[in-house]
Amino acid sequence: MFSRFFNKASCQASQDSAIEAPMAPITTDNSPKNLVQSLVAGRQIAAAAAAEGDSCEFGSAHYFALCGLGGILSCGITHTAVVPLDLVKCRIQVDPAKYKSVFNGFRVTLKEDGARGLAKGWAPTFFGYSAQGLCKFGLYEVFKVMYTDMIGDENAYLYRTWLYLSASASAEFFADIALSPMEAAKVKIQTTPGFANTLREAWPKIYREEGLNGFYKSLVPLWMRQIPYTMMKFACFERTVELLYKYVVPKPRADCTKGEQLVVTFAAGYIAGVFCAIVSHPADTVVSKLNQEKGATALSAAKKLGFAGLWKGLTPRIVMIGTLTALQWFIYDAFKVAMRMPRPPPPEMPESLKKKLEGKTE
């Protein structure tokens, strides 16, 4: 199924290519005007060439590769930039008696470790979240097109929120497998005094003490944290952009400048980020506790923390994740603009669906 999908997604037209219409039998067409449906309802993209002004075709292998590169930049840069806040957040979660608040956490860290101490864990953060970003954004675009192809453009429009949720969950499943080893090293460096100061020290030590399990023991709670987070991140962002253009922005997206469109992207990203932080925070606390304590399980860590403990560090995480999500979407969209990639407008009802609805009302 995957090979069939990628052959179609790569938009390589041939004289004998078969074009699938949603919910219809396969038919062949030897004309040079063969078309493939895009995710955006009612929009079609010529298979033979990119649209005028675009550097690649929507849904092509080149397009997906650029989406992955944009994900590396957006996640790797932003997560590394907020390492000091992330370090304090993790320490509040695992040792609230010592690190009582955000400001207290910064003060204690500066006193004990100096300014360099705030950068602890930057290397696993950069490499881990770069790998995660590659899978998160790149595979999201892949799964979004794949699922649209499976259910047809009418259903993709009617159930687009479910489409965003399922595509983002599928992408994050693989993204967390890429992230987990680096996340384990990051948390160990940040929350276990004397364990290690660098990635080069942490990885051999984790493997020596816990084997491969040490890198993946928090994968399930990581899925519990990241999958709901990413589902909210993508679905809330997509629908918020749609609503902003519909009710807030005084003119259609096509009439907005690239700068104005990026402002809308940033605003929608921040709104999505606030919700992301709330729904994923308890699992984030468990992940921090798990990686701090050798031999702990997700259930034992949750019991030890208690209900109130699961919500420790929520305020700095809302600030961190809200800013992160907004900047990630901004960088990702700006990268698309810079690379002249196709940026489809918000979904519109397909003409075929409009005719069906009009027929029912007559």
UniProtKB/TrEMBL annotation:
Transmembrane segments: none annotated. GO terms for cellular component: mitochondrial inner membrane. SUPFAM superfamilies: Mitochondrial carrier. Transport of phosphate groups from the cytosol to the mitochondrial matrix. Residues 343-362 are annotated as: Disordered. The keyword Transferase does not apply. GO terms for molecular function: phosphate transmembrane transporter activity. GO terms for biological process: mitochondrial phosphate ion transmembrane transport. This is Phosphate carrier protein, mitochondrial. Solcar repeats lie at residues 62-146, 159-243, 260-338. Keywords: Membrane, Mitochondrion, Mitochondrion inner membrane, Repeat, Transit peptide, Transmembrane, Transmembrane helix, Transport. It comes from the Eukaryota. It comes from Phyllotreta striolata (Striped flea beetle). It is found in: Mitochondrion inner membrane. Pfam families: Mito_carr. The lineage of its organism: Eukaryota, Metazoa, Ecdysozoa, Arthropoda, Hexapoda. Belongs to the mitochondrial carrier (TC 2.A.29) family. Residues 351-362 have a biased composition (Basic and acidic residues). It is a multi-pass membrane protein.
